[in-house]
Write a structure and sequence with these properties.
This protein has 13 helices and 13 strands. By secondary structure, it is α+β, with helices and mostly antiparallel strands.
């Protein structure tokens, strides 16, 4: 009998097939334009590694509502594609046709087939082994860079705004926003109870948040115009930093936990492998009641890898545990996956402590909702 683990867990790394569901509400009179754009899109996506199949469906109750479902061998190839420049350009023709969209991603846990029907060709990819215990929280991050020399000004702007109301609607609440900087790179990690898209839209409409976004515009390395929906959409698509793995010990979070964000400068082409290694390390830590790691979230896109870690002890108490590299040869593996300029400096305790201090991003603000 399958039992749920007591720990909280979500992961893109279990190797199971992925089902993606995209809900669309079309603009009036845009059906033909949409179908033409979809035909071009589906021919392109069919050649993406890891893609298995997709279907286009139209509501039998409201012809303006459409559904695209796709199946992938596993989550990593889909995430690599959906966050790529290729995808940004590929979906541009759809934006003028669609009033609203919502994307949902699911690991395939069980499936039932009609044994009386001849079995189709075996589908690539395996099923999710066991159900995971969730906490109802969606985790996501955004990352972008600002012009060198503007870091102090940007940090001041980002730390000084008034928090928006936590309540979005009857089912969605903002729980926590943690904002860090690593040099001129900004990482904003958010936790939402309920619907992430509804929460992001709610935040974007708040005057205090809009004022902050406008204030940092002159300092961004990537130009954007928040009054232009397409410009804003492209910026936030490129800024997306998905949570690929989260694990936390079960039970109430201890009061003495401190939050850190660690930036790992991955060697070109090694970001995914590095994220998987950190995820495995954090899984083992979550199973150890004596571990100083209460919980962690690994965010990864291409070679950008950020690990948000909640620690029960000071971060420098045990550098290997804090870095997610404890155990035989784990430090050697980490060194192999890091950029060469960094990797050579992890051979002594002093160099390890120096790297940890550099990787520990500057905390700009960490805000929780009152009841989070």
């Amino acid at each position: 009998m399958t039992t749920l683990s007591e720990r909280i867990s979500q992961s893109a790394f279990d190797g199971s097939r992925l089902r993606v569901v995209l809900l669309l509400d079309l603009q009036e009179g845009a059906q033909q334009q949409f179908l033409e754009a979809y035909e071009q899109l589906r021919n392109q996506v069919a050649s993406v590694p890891g893609h298995i199949t997709d279907q286009l469906c139209q509501s039998i109750e409201n012809p303006s509502q459409w559904l695209i479902t796709s199946e992938w061998e596993s989550a990593p190839p889909f995430l690599a594609w959906v966050n790529s420049e290729e995808h940004v350009k590929m979906v541009q023709p759809l934006h003028g046709c669609v009033r609203d969209t919502r994307s949902l991603r699911f690991s395939v846990l069980r499936e039932t087939s009609n044994e009386a029907v001849a079995a189709p060709e075996p589908v690539k990819g395996r099923l999710q082994a066991d159900p995971r215990a969730g906490d109802g929280v969606v985790r996501h991050a955004l990352t972008f860079t600002v012009k060198p020399g503007s870091e102090a000004m940007v940090a001041d702007i980002l730390s000084g705004y008034t928090s928006p109301a936590a309540r979005v609607d009857d089912t969605t609440r903002l729980r926590r926003t943690s904002l860090f900087m690593y040099g001129n790179r900004v990482v904003r990690a958010i936790e939402v109870q309920g619907d992430l898209i509804a929460a992001l839209r709610h935040v974007s409409r708040q005057p205090e948040v809009r004022a902050v976004e406008e204030a940092i515009n002159p300092y961004l390395e990537q130009d954007r115009d928040l009054d232009d929906p397409n410009s804003a959409r492209v910026f936030f698509t490129r800024a997306a930093l998905p949570a690929v793995h989260h694990v936390a010990a079960g039970g109430q979070e201890p009061a003495d936990v401190s939050r850190h964000a660690l930036f790992y400068p991955a060697k070109p082409g090694s970001g995914l492998t590095l994220a998987k290694m950190l995820a495995r390390q954090d899984e083992m830590a979550a199973d150890d009641p004596a571990s100083p790691v209460y919980g962690s979230t690994v965010f990864q896109r291409d070679d950008i890898v950020v690990r948000l870690v909640d620690l029960r002890v000071p971060i420098d108490r045990d550098p290997l545990v804090s870095l997610g590299a404890r155990g035989p040869r784990k430090l050697a593996v980490l060194r192999r996956l890091l950029d060469g300029d960094v990797a050579g400096g992890l051979t002594t305790d002093r160099e390890l402590a120096h790297f940890l201090a550099r990787a520990d991003m500057d905390l700009i603000t960490d805000r929780r909702a009152a009841d989070a």
